[in-house]
Design a protein that fits this description.
mainly alpha, 10% strand, 13 strands, binds glutamic acid, 23 helices, 548 residues, three-stranded parallel beta sheet, single chain
Length: 548
Amino acid sequence: MDLIKLANALIPDKDLKDPDEYESIYPARNLSKGAEVTRLAPSPTGFIHLGNLYSALADERAAHTTGGVFYLRIEDTDEKRKVEGAVESVIRSLKYFGIKFDEGAEIDSPLNVYGPYYQRQRAEIYRTYAKRLIAQGLAYPCFCSAEELDEVRTRQTENKETTGYYGKYAKCRNLSEEQIYKNLEEGKPFVIRLKSMGHIENKMTFRDAIKGDITVTENDQDVVILKSDGIPTYHFAHAIDDHFMRTTLVIRGEEWLSSLPIHIELFKVLGFERPRYAHTCSLMKMDGETKRKLSKRKDPELSLDYYRKAGYYPLAVVKYLMTVLNSGFEEWTLKNPGADWRDFKFKVDKMGKSGALFDLEKLNDISKTEISLLSPEECYDFLKSWVDEFGTDADRAHFADREYIIKILNLVMGTGGKKRRKDLERAEQSVRLIDYFFDDTFVPEYSYRFDDETVNAVLNGFAAVYDENDDNQAWFNKVKQVAANCGFAAEMQDYKAHPENYKGSVSDAAEILRIAVTGGPNSPDLCTIMKILGGVRAVGRLNAANRK
Ligand code: GLU
């Protein structure tokens, strides 16, 4: 068969370059030895998930700890799944977590010489190489319809055979020249398939940068490389793009492991040197007793938007993921308190080999710690940016009074030399936690442990003597006095010695006041809260809390 004629008939594009020209258009990168070129290659579906951030973090670290390059490529070959604004959303989301690209789609960089970075704009390169493979007899047209393929698949499933287009099932592999041209004349749609030379019985050892040596079987599937609309499949685009963008290390989810044999063969037939691969393990969670993959449908925490909306401190999410990525990270942070997390020596080969357990509780703990390390001013800025984007109108009005919020934050964060409090976990929770400092969001549910008469006696007794100018000591003396007047023990040790003589201790009496002022039995220092509220509002709350 005249393969050159066939290649021209199948891909008649006039002005395609000689394939080898691309080698000089996209020359090897001028980087020092050991520098890794990594990429994030999302499909623009609009859904950015924790797995993307997890991979991006590994990519970013691998590139930036070796003096390499981290770029963004958009895999938009599937038009149906494309969502408007998805690219901006990837960039914005990752930026929120402090992850920046050096080059790529929508990145303003002088390095952008390996583009275009949208696969749809690279059609010419894919067609050039598909044409060469046809001319070399390494690819061929397939005219099978979707129905025919479905039928074969059903038959294979029934016979418990491997499904796909291979061996005796690769019907179009041996079409005669005559049949091919007849089909073309009839205008039958076709795809281009790889003519696989592999054999399923041949096994080889493959070194994965994370999983180590693994055994892979040769590919024997005549996979589609160009679809009928001329757009490449993931497999073909991956090989061409990662070669010409000069990627040295492909970090991607382990769901791609099963396609690895295809990729190995594609690199071989294209005559390209293969990048190294690092297949990351899936993020899992405990569901009762069983471990399962995080799922888009069941787990809102899979979406990165979840973390922004809930107001997680971005660095906390990054640090948490670092603990999942590299087991030594946590130990390192303990040994190097205050050090910049980027100083940690990240190693791809230290990444977990199997199912990383995602633990929201642990993330919450890290988030509490990170927020507790902020100054109240920094914390205000962080909360304010959340409020601006996700808060209610009331929140925005509250946050307009910076000075008042900072007073509150000084209290709830426990500044002033004492051990910091860790009450603030994330922005949404923090903003709700301080709602009681504002009259319009103070909605107490008074739930006292004493009878109405006692409650009223404590509230009225304290309202009568409260003075906002009292210091902590004077304030507490008054609480004791009122407690004693109402039948509570003013001193703890008296109560402990003879509980039967009292209604309760001074702290029980103080709890009545606390519930009245803050709406609940737990709060930071009540004396300071009353001062922040001011005498009029504080006493107003004591009066309003009276049992009728
Ligand atoms: N577009 C592929 C995905 O979103 C990328 C896989 C890869 O990193 O190679 O799953």
